[in-house]
Amino acid sequence: MIKIAEVFSPHQGSLAKMVKQCGIDHVVAGIGLHPIKNASPDDQPYSCKSLERSKSSYEDMGFSMEVIESRPPLLKAKLGLPGRDEEIDIACELIRNMGTVGIPVWCYEWMAVFNWMRTSKDIPSRGGALVTGYDHSISQKESLTEYGTITEEQLWDSLEYFLKRVVPVAEKANVKLAMHPDDPPISPLRGIGRIMRSIENYQRLLDLFPSPVNGIALCQGNFTLMTDDLPSAIRNFGKQEKIFFVHFRDVRGTPEKFQETFHDDGKTDMLECMRAYRDVGFSGVCRPDHVPTMEGDDNNNPGYSSIGRLFAIGYLKGLREAVYRE
Ligand SMILES: [Mn+2]
Questions:
Q1: How far is CA 132 from CA 61, 145, 227, 236, in A?
Q2: What distance, in Å, lies between the first and last C-alpha atoms of the chain?
Q3: pLDDT tens for residues 32-58?
Q4: 184 Cα to the center of ligand 1, angstroms
Q5: Which of 127, 47, 72, 111 is nearest to 294 (CA)?
Q6: pLDDT band at residue 102, thresholds of 50, 70 and 90?
Q7: Burial code of 79-107, b = ≥16 C-beta within 10 A, e = fewer?
Q8: Omega of the bond prior to 181 within 30 degrees of 0, cis?
Q9: What is the pTM of this model?
Q10: pLDDT of 113-140, one tens digit each?
Q11: Cβ neighbours of residue 289 under 8 Å, at least 6 residues apart?
Q12: 137: how many CB neighbours lie within 10 A of its CB?
């Protein structure tokens, strides 16, 4: 059965309690992984010792640590710049140590320079709840970055270089590599190409290294902008046993102009998506992603309102119960 999780740091004790009260037993770790200058190997945040400590902290709060969703710096690796080998060394070290400590999935991404991009983070949605949105006509008005133009082929080359080193390490460590899509799934952004933005490109990633550890973080909010039939895409990748992790969220609109929504208020047939995960036998982790900021919460961390998460967890649990009882 699909597992439901939430993402938080070991320091978010109050949120962890709320999540626990909703009956959630799994956690996606959002932990800092930036190398610390002059620290001993054991004190690096990606060392076995540090990962072991995080895992114990989560266990003390009642959660098993199933996924790491943060990354050490990979900008040079993505842009193919000098120094990339040192960055990749650290990624390999992280993966090896995840294997030793027993954390089965690493969610990474290949968005260079920008991570998820929005043009507004306080659009009033249902009942005045605040959501984020993206409008390509606005973001395109901004100039190129200091990195100039980065083509999609450059990114495919750097990704191949990265995976050539990382996949064998992940295979040996038995850690799954779950590629998160580009958000928004559109290319280029201010001159920076984006490659993980279509169903075809995902298949290209899978075919590049046909390994049991090379797979997908299926962030529904992005995938549903790549296709009008998300349940079929889930069935397609699920049958190939390539879905390693799921982000459960929804949007309304197109890749060029969309806004996020409550989980029961977007363009996607969420019930049919849950049926698809069930039918392909997906037994990995799904977490709510980007929730509206609801009354009573501030909008300091758009997409991650605590109260908004409670609605999402409840809705997700209800869908799961309905589908697995059918
Ligand atoms: Mn996501």
A1: 31, 23, 21, 29
A2: 13
A3: 999 999 999 999 999 999 999 999 999
A4: 10
A5: 127
A6: very high
A7: bbeeebeebbebbbbbbbbbbebebbbbb
A8: no
A9: 0.97
A10: 999 999 999 999 999 999 999 999 999 8
A11: 219, 220, 221, 247, 248, 249, 303
A12: 9
- Known catalytic residue at 289: yes
Active site residue: 247, 277, 286, 297, which one?
Answer: 247
**DSSP category for residue 44:** S
For 45-194, strand residue ranges (E) read 64-68, 105-109, 120-124, 130-135, 176-180
Distance CA 83, CA 160 (A): 16
Distance CA 308, CA 300 (A): 13
Q: How far is the CA of 38 from the centre of ligand 1 (A)?
A: 33
What residue ranges define each of the domains in the chain, with the CATH number in brackets? 3-325 (3.20.20.150)
pLDDT grade for 290, boundaries at 50, 70 and 90: very high
Query: pLDDT at position 142, please?
Result: 87
State the chain's mean pLDDT as an integer.
97
Instruction: Let me know: does 318 contact 61? Beta carbons within 8 Å.
Output: no
